[in-house]
Amino acid sequence: MDPEYFKSYEMCWGTLGTVRPFSNFHPDRDAMEIQAALEKKDAGTLVRILTNRNNAQRQVIAETFKEITQKDLEAGVKKALAGDLEILLLELLMPPLQYEALRLQQAMAGLGTDEETLLEILCTRSGKQLQGISTAYQHLYKKDLEKELKGETSGDFAKLVVALLNKEDVAGVVQRDIESLSASLNGKKADVGPWIDILTSRDSDHLNKVLMGLELETGQVVDQTVEKQFTGDIRLGLKVLVQCIQNPDVYLAKRLTTMKTPIVQGIMVSHCEEDLLCIRAAYLKLTGTSLYTALQKQYKGDHLQALLAICRSED
How confident is the model at residue 64 (pLDDT cuts 50, 70, 90)? Predict the structure, then answer.
């Protein structure tokens, strides 16, 4: 690991991310080193630099690289590398909102929709972040994200994902919300309407009180209630949403236990500057193994070194 990382640690004290600004940052030096590494196909140097700079610094490196070489850094990475490592470094080079837009686009591309990745992003991002992601999506793909989501989903699940995309914090009364959710379960078939309306339009503190109150009223955990009362995609959607309201770190840690490369890279790149320390702690509690160790059992070579650098350390 780069010793300069430790010098930058105190500067960013309080962050819950693992990738922090590099204190002794010289973009021209990085760009020249990267140019030489690309020519030699020296993956180790590329990994060392790109995983030890935060995203804002990587954007400056890409601009500086273009000024110095008159070449595109992304194109250089594609030419020099292949496989999962190439994908990971290209993901690190994308601005955060564009990266989330890419993940949503990939989740909807081809045959079948990856509902869980859609839900992961829509449930763990704030309304303001999702507005930014929608704008980035429009810019990248010249398509409206809400229309794309509607086209890839149907029924109540479509209503849920659109409500999540447009989520906002509206003041509500806890007891009234508990009563609305409880009443929705009383008919022959549960009414999903209040669940979508309430769970996508209140802040997390309010919703945690509502869910705890509902558990007291029904005598069972909300996850079990959703499992019994709903079916299909909407059941999956509400289960993920409830888990993300109660503890998003635990939900993301559970996703990481699949050790599927797109999921692992997606979460680690998305959260490495925000809250990956919390997700790491949840992973350890959930599995009894640190994420750092789990990665070493699953991956190898320069790709492993890049993932370990993003994860940063053993717990």
Answer: very high
Cα separation, 70 vs 266, in Å, equals 30
CA distance 44 to 42: 6
Band of the pLDDT at 172, cuts 50, 70, 90? confident
Contacts with 231 (C-beta within 8 Å, 6 or more apart), sequence order: none
Which residues fall within 8 angstroms of residue 274, CB to CB, at 6 or more apart? 16, 17
Q: 0.90 exceeded by the pTM?
A: yes
What are the extents of the domains in the chain? 4-93, 97-165, 174-246, 249-311
- Name the CATH architecture for the domain at 249-311: Orthogonal Bundle (1.10)
Same fold, 97-165 and 174-246: yes
First to last CA, the chain: 16
| Residues 240, 116: Cα–Cα separation, whole Å | 8
CATH superfamily of 174-246: Annexin (1.10.220.10)
C-alpha–C-alpha distance, residues 91 and 104, integer Å: 13
Residue-wise pLDDT for 176-200, tens only, equals 999 999 999 998 899 999 999 999 9
**Structure tokens that stand for 167 in this block:** 């989520």
Q: pLDDT for 270-301, tens place per residue?
A: 999 999 999 999 999 999 999 999 999 999 99
Contact 253, 209 (CB under 8 A): no
Count Cβ atoms within 10 A of the Cβ of residue 210 and give its class: 0-12 exposed, 13-18 middle, 19 or more buried: buried
Instruction: Indicate the SS3 state at residue 32.
Output: helix
Q: Which residue has the higher pLDDT, 112 or 79?
A: 79
4-93 CATH fold? Annexin V; domain 1 (1.10.220)
- CB 115, CB 157: distance < 8 Å: yes
Look at the block and give the residue holding tokens 């955060």.
96
Q: Could you tell me the two tokens for 287?
A: 């599995």
